[in-house]
Write a structure and sequence with these properties.
3-stranded mixed beta sheet; 13-stranded mixed beta sheet
């Protein structure tokens, strides 16, 4: 960590500059800079969570809680950046202080818990209103009009219409409902509502697939250094150090039973029309699904897909509630289940040196070697693990800032593989 020169370039992977970490007392002009009391702090993002959260471990000899009191709406103002890269900054709601312990005489350690400011608005919202229209348009209106966020909003276009009554729901509950009932203009049913470094997002996961690669991570047994031409000295390449995977944990290689039971492999929708007293049967499988994939090959081969019976998904149309047409998600519910669960088909966790531009909802590439003896006659393709390597989406990330460096633990998921 370096707080001295804000204009200097980066000197090592994981370097960060903490410009501000201050507690703002509610209904007061008091601001307490606690940078010198910080042991470490963490910022958490999750593509399946609506807001950014965080914790900070404080080592305190000044009894600061008695200074800013039980305000309830005390704020944190944070600005931390990676030199030569982006910054993480903004106001957060300090909603909890806990885990207090006395480590020695007149020295206490406790944890601050914080969340994005929009949480204050959301906890007091009880929206009683009828909504009709495109789920994406409704979502954008909820972000602006009800959640009152001033952050950037990214919305993927939805091709369907919906109609429903918000029965005293909060804004976040409405957004979750809309994600379940949105069909993209690419005919995919994989919307998610989350916050990342760029702001608020109500997007189709499919729209993330076409984004530029944020980083190309590499898992290797060799040091990420180069030898300068014409000499024996080692040149340090910080960009290569950022790519180095420190540790890797395959938390979910594959789970065929869970995938089969949830409808990822094969499904059959039984769609009931209560008004007309009719029903419709629709079959869907990975084999005939036209959704583009992150990597060239599906999770399961045609023989595996054809060998299992479809999971039955009963649902019904909401016909004629507000308009003379079906406005439910019945016709694409099976796609919603398949497309949402497919992304969870393979999940891994990696630890890397941190950068402030790493955030959820971005596409990355991983190159991972097989765990076998490597000889000089093997090519890079011979030693690459084709099941684990490939393109992934960052679905969760924990930024850790301590006195030594900024590190990141990332959860990565993908819906396909390089090779089966």
């Amino acid at each position: 960590m370096d707080n001295s020169n804000p204009n200097k370039g980066i000197t090592f992977a994981g370097e960060y500059i903490l410009d501000e970490f201050a507690i703002l007392k509610a209904d007061s002009d008091l601001a307490v800079d606690v940078r010198n009391q910080l042991n470490a702090f963490y910022i958490y993002e999750d593509m399946y969570s609506p807001l950014i959260t965080g914790t900070a471990v404080i080592r305190d000899t000044l009894d600061l809680p008695s200074l800013f009191g039980r305000g309830g709406k005390n704020l944190l103002r944070i600005k931390v950046r990676t030199p030569s890269y982006k910054s993480i900054e903004g106001f957060f709601h300090l909603y909890k202080i806990g885990d207090q312990s006395l480590v020695k005489e007149r020295t206490q350690v406790y944890t601050l818990n914080f969340v994005s400011l929009e949480s204050i608005t959301d906890t007091s919202l009880h929206i009683s209103k009828r909504f009709i229209g495109s789920p994406s348009q409704i979502a954008e209106d909820i972000y602006r009009t009800h959640l009152k966020t001033e952050k950037n909003i990214t919305v993927s276009p939805s091709s369907n219409r919906t109609a429903y009554v918000s029965n005293y729901w909060s804004a976040i509950t409405n957004l979750a409902f809309l994600a379940d009932n949105a069909l993209s203009d690419k005919n995919t049913a994989d919307f998610v509502a989350f916050e990342n470094r760029d702001g608020m997002n109500f997007v189709s996961v499919q729209s993330i697939f076409s984004q530029p690669i944020l980083q190309d991570f590499i898992q290797t047994d060799y040091l990420m250094t180069e030898v300068a031409p014409g000499s024996t000295s080692v040149v340090r390449d910080i960009n290569l150090e950022f790519k180095q995977i420190q540790t890797l944990n395959v938390s979910h290689y594959y789970d065929f039973i869970t995938d089969n039971d949830s409808g990822v492999v094969n499904s059959r929708s039984l769609i009931h029309d209560i008004v007309r007293k009719q029903y419709e049967v629709r079959d869907l499988s990975q084999r005939n699904d036209v959704k583009p994939l992150l990597n060239p090959n599906r999770l399961y081969t045609d023989k595996v897909i054809d060998s299992v019976r479809p999971r039955l998904i009963p649902t019904h149309k909401h016909f004629g509630l507000f308009e003379p047409e079906d406005l439910s998600n019945a016709r694409f519910l099976s796609r919603r289940i398949m497309h949402s669960k497919m992304l969870m088909g393979q999940k891994i966790e990696i630890d890397v040196m941190g950068r402030a531009d790493y955030t959820v909802g971005k596409r990355v590439k991983l190159t991972i070697n097989e765990l076998k003896n490597i000889t000089s006659d093997m090519s890079d393709d011979d030693i690459k693990n084709k099941m684990l390597s490939g393109y992934y989406i960052i679905t969760a990330i924990a930024h850790k800032f301590d006195g030594r460096a900024h590190t990141c633990k990332m959860e990565l998921m993908k819906d396909s593989v390089v090779s089966t």
